[in-house]
Amino acid sequence: MTAPRVEIDLTKIEENARCLVDRLGAYGISVTGVTKGVCGHPDVAGAMVDGGVAGLADARITNIVRMRMAGITCPVSMLRAPMASELEAVIRHCDTSYNTEMDTILKLGLAAEKRGASQDIILIVEMGDGREGILPEALNDFATLVIATPWVALKGIAANFACMGSVAPTAADMITLSRLADSVEGGCGPFVDLVSGGGSANVPWALGEHTAWRVNNLRLGEAILLGLDPVTGRPIDGLHTDAFALFAEVIEARGKPGTIPHETTPPDLGPLRIVGQDNPGTRVVLAVGQQDTDAGDLTFPSGFTFVGATSDHTVVDTGQSVMPVGSEMKMGMRYGALMRAMSARDVAKAVHGKRDMTTRAKDHDPPPFLTLV
Fold first, then answer.
1. SS3 track for 200-255
2. 326 near 343, Cβ under 8 Å?
3. Which residues neighbour 226 within 8 Å (Cβ) at sequence distance 6 or greater?
4. Which residues pair with 33 in a beta bridge?
């Protein structure tokens, strides 16, 4: 088979989604499947839908168009605040968008009126992550302006945790978010339908002993795809952690010293000498590099040690194990490695358990400024 490649087990992704949907559903929390880590891969999106997610969400309109063109018809949300250049595409392909800027929402309303289709709005609240969000004290006034804007509807509020930072949300954070929803209703009138508490970093809280208060949704990508808690890196009980694997071909294999210092001398005093130290081990060079994945976010077979990577090569110490040239190494991926590998055009994607997705959404042709590859 072609290498490098990512092999994808759709059955495990579906089972992860279903497990989380069922377990969180017992607390009244719905799951939105986040597809940005796989660039909106339609088969992965379909596996999430088959696993029972309430809808999908992505941060890039190209990924959303890709899913729509493949026949994904479930509700899809635009996670990143829309850019001015993509407002019409967001209205056309997304049921909902997450927003923090009133000017953008006003323009979304104009684009929605032009198309004759209202857009649901979820307001992101800044609760300490430090990325995007409306300050809590400004939320009510902001919500009032949204409610007064034609062709958009305030659907809910949301918060982000462990995106910029690595601090997991707490029960106190969820109580605060719930009270903000109450405050919006008290100050503005309409019912806040969706209170989205965050992403995969919230799963340990959500599955623990707690009262959900008004938090009734989580946006899950890493938990479904990799079965991991993004804050601790630990597996989440009951989930598969091996739905994705990266395969790369060995292009060099030989024993080399553990360290190779260079004794340099002026050219007229003699040639460069490489002086070996430590006991030699077996090192292999893989035909995959930082252009293809985040090599530092890969996990290697037991007994193998990551040495380093450049744009097109990754070096691994295999100890006493022998891997001949032409053989392949199988590696696990954390989220950063998965995201880059799925976006790399030179990394093939091999899907196992592929579903028949022959029904195309005729109303979702790509807008003229998009090129799908």
1. HHHHHHHHCCCCCCCCCEEEECHHHHHCECCCCCCECCCCCCCCEEEEEEEEEEEE
2. no
3. 241, 243, 244, 333, 334, 335, 338
4. 56, 220
Q: Which has more confidence, 139 or 367? A: 139
pLDDT score, position 373: 39
| 127, amino acid identity | M
Query: pLDDT tens for residues 309-334?
Result: 999 999 999 998 989 999 999 999 99
Closest-CA residue to 176 (of 133, 147, 145, 144): 133
Same domain for 128 and 263, yes or no, is no
Give the pLDDT of residue 357.
57
Q: Report d(CA 131, CA 93) in Å as an integer.
A: 25
Q: What are 201's two structure tokens?
A: 């970093």
> Could you give the angle at which helices 139-147 and 102-115 cross, rounded to 10 degrees?
20
Q: How confident is the model at residue 68, as a pLDDT?
A: 98
For residue 259, name the pLDDT band (cuts at 50, 70, 90). Answer: low
Give yes or no: residues 104 and 214 share one domain.
Answer: yes
Domain assignment of residue 101, given as a range: 9-226
For residues 123 and 27, state if they share a domain: yes
The whole-number pLDDT of residue 95 equals 96
Which residue, 208, 293, 310, 297, is CA-closest to 251?
310
Indicate whether 83 and 214 sit together in one domain.
Answer: yes
